[in-house]
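Problem statement: downstream parser choked on a complex file, so we are re-checking the raw output for the beta-D-glucopyranose run. The parser issue turned out to be on our end (a line-ending mismatch), but while we're here, posting the original submission so the record is complete.
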Amino acid sequence: MALASRPFAVTNVRFEHYLPEYALGLHESQPRISWRFQNAPEGFQQHGYELELVDIPSLSQEARNPATFKVDSGASVLVPWPHHDRLRSRQRVGVRVRVWDAVGFSSDWSEQSALEVGLLSRQDWKCQRITTSWPVDPSRPGPEHLFRKQFSTRSEVAHARLYITAQGLYEANINGSRIGDQLLTPGWTDYSKRLQYQTYDVTHLISSGPSKNCVGVRLAEGWFCGRIGFEGGRRNIWGSQMTLLAQLEIQYADGAHEIISTDDTWQTTPGPTRLAEIYDGEKYDANLEIPAWSTGDSANSGVWRNATALESLPETTKLVAGTGEPVRAVEVLKPVDLIHTPSGKSILDFGQNFTGYTRIKRVRGAKGQTLTLWHAEVLEHGELGRRPLRQAAACDQYTFCGAAEGESWEPRFTFHGFRYVQVDGWPAPKGERAMMDSFEAVVIHSAMEPVGAFSCSDPRLEKLHSNVKWSMRSNFVSIPTDCPQRDERLGWTGDLALFAPAATLLYNCYGLVSNWLVDVRGDQDDLDGVPPVVSPNVVKEDKVWGQVTPFAIWHDCTILGPWALYQATGDSTILASSYESMTTWLDRIPRNKARDNILWDPSFFQLGDWLDPTASPHDAARGQTDSVLVADAFLIHSLETMASVCTILEADSTQAETYGAAAERYRFETQRAKSAFLNEYISASGRVVSDSQAAYALTITFDLFETREQKMRAGERIAEIVRRNDFKVGTGFAGTPFVCEALALAEQTPVAYAMLLNEQCPSWLYPVTMGATTVWERWDSMLPDGTINPGSMTSFNHYAFGAVITFFYERIVGIRRLEPGWKRASFTPAPGGGLTHSQASVLTPYGQLSCSWSLDRKPSRQVNGGQHCNLHLAVVVPANVVVELVLPSSSSSSLDSERKQSVKELSCGNWSFSVPWVEPSDAEWPVKPIHMKLFG
Ligand code: BGC
């Protein structure tokens, strides 16, 4: 490969895990720094780096006090902040980086990346917490509240920041313009402990000089006091009053500084949004709009009253910046069809199930006329299928004021999980085109950095991958939730525990998940060390979930969640900050005192292999696999993971001795638990007592056998079970992420492919054949006859079963981390399943890593009954990463164990190879099902 002709540069200089565009208002006072490389020469490995730090004063963009730091190190990810001084509140710093290799070949300086610190201490907050001044009935949902403050600037404005948060949801404006594009701010946290605030650069929105300015804020109930929870939820979980805290800090060009902060001189009035609820939707009456309400020109009409100032937030509620990406509108969808239902309704089809809302555009309606939009994920017998929404109305209503030019509107404080929208009360002009043109759908989610891409020769698998990605997008809305449509949308810990490894392949979700884990740990403290089933814990009062009951998997999230983040990034700080929560959980697990004193006490109820396809639609926990076996398998997995966590912390930390001793203890406990498990559940030859797909999936993947022979026998047995089941899936939440991997580990990869490519229900492809555009909660959320599954828990947008996509990356393509954070990876191409090509790329912390293989078939040539092909391999390795390419040899057969492999180490560059490959013969692929016949 020739040297790159464009200059070799360092790019994407970033702080902690923030995307460069979100480096405003950070709370880290010594943020770690990372960068990627552009046009690095072939084989480049960094040997040293130099950081240049400059202060960016707020009065000018001229940098001051450059300080440079040279470090001999190959590290380019999360390197320590070089300055001994900690950054202060509001400090703005620019950072540039350059690097060199062993022979001194160096890059240019990067562009400058800037970061700005937020308000680090409570003393920085000068504002008062304000609320409305009229009595509000907290027992029922009320309208949005508007707040505003008109002000004049003294002279030319050099720089202005708005720091703002609310107990509720807010949308802020200055002089009639919306500030920023963040949605559902301040985001969802356990508001009693942590309230996030946002920092906005509003310099450009403020008018300098004599004209009047105005900051205006809309406030709605949101998660804070709106209805949320399980089985309909409850109102006022964190408080019954919406409140606002804001301070606008203006730096004038002449050096003066002014703070305009919320207090009882702010004015307030109810707004035109008459109802704003997460589950039920929004009702907006355009007749109640107050023209130009958030501008300096608006008259002080009688509707405005002074706000009431409340006592400060208790010190126990921290004001934090949070580390999750903001929720934003990320895509706009146009309707693909207008459906007229048998009952005469009009339904728009957006062609994709997703999370967001409907926008209406320039619709002309008579004054007082109301347009109603009902949202749902599916149609049932041609009508809108609203039953799965349970007690969520998911309905938005707009009342026209009769504007001649038409009216445009979109909700601000709600979101729906939907594909279809039933439009009731459509005003003139009638006509299909006019209706289709008048609506669009806005897709929203936490705007994480996409990292994974997959393609292959089977479009059905590509569609499945796309569906998983859509389900992740739909459910990563401020926190990782279970579903976006019904009366839940909660941070169920088990769902994330199982999906986290897949999630990290699709998006960089470190910021969001680590932010959520802070609340998981806080909730765990409240529950005396037993983690919550959902966090923020809004089910404390629920009759089932409110009890402090330990559950396997859901509570193992305290270990498996941080572990997945560590694997994706190599950042061990998440392990250190989760350590206490992990050990506390392991200590709280009730053990079987009567027998081994190490496995789970079997008297505790477990969710087990939740939603196993053989469980009744009305009893999802009652699957075919012993739920205690499932719990015990996860216990061992958690103990073993914990031993690794301690070993990593031992190497990284000043408390090496403590962690070393803990590692020893967890290794010992893992061994004890494995022996007890063997004794209880595994026969000498390798059969597992539950004899189900999930039992084998877990025991093989978690390595719970004593001997290789037992494991291989278990592999044969699960293959047999799958073949007898016509390759249909027999696992629920717990077994599904592991079943294909277990087959591959036990050298039954063709059976894994047969299962993956199967279309009969239950299977991953059955929903695809039914037109699914997201992953369903149940294998048969929609029954083959087009009827919605009768179970009350029937979502069409749950990511859990999508965890199988780790197999797509790691097995179908063969790309895998060898070291956490992708410093070292492997590419083990092993074509199978009749596919002729596959490709995956991952945007690693170092840059884009991409691997693909394709088969060039030569039909005339048959070798040993198989087909002789050329296997073309292509690899793109980013700088500072090494990829081990495991080349299959020409004598390879379909059996993994018989493949002779050779390993090549590839460093930065674009690589391609061709090797001979023999495709399996007809006798080996496709794998045949086993049918037991009674006669003949
Ligand atoms: C949620 C699940 C969750 C489960 C636990 C459901 O209602 O949607 O995803 O993990 O409850 O029982």
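For whoever reads this later: Residues 482-483, 488, 492, 494-495, 607, 793, 798 surround beta-D-glucopyranose (CB under 6 Å).
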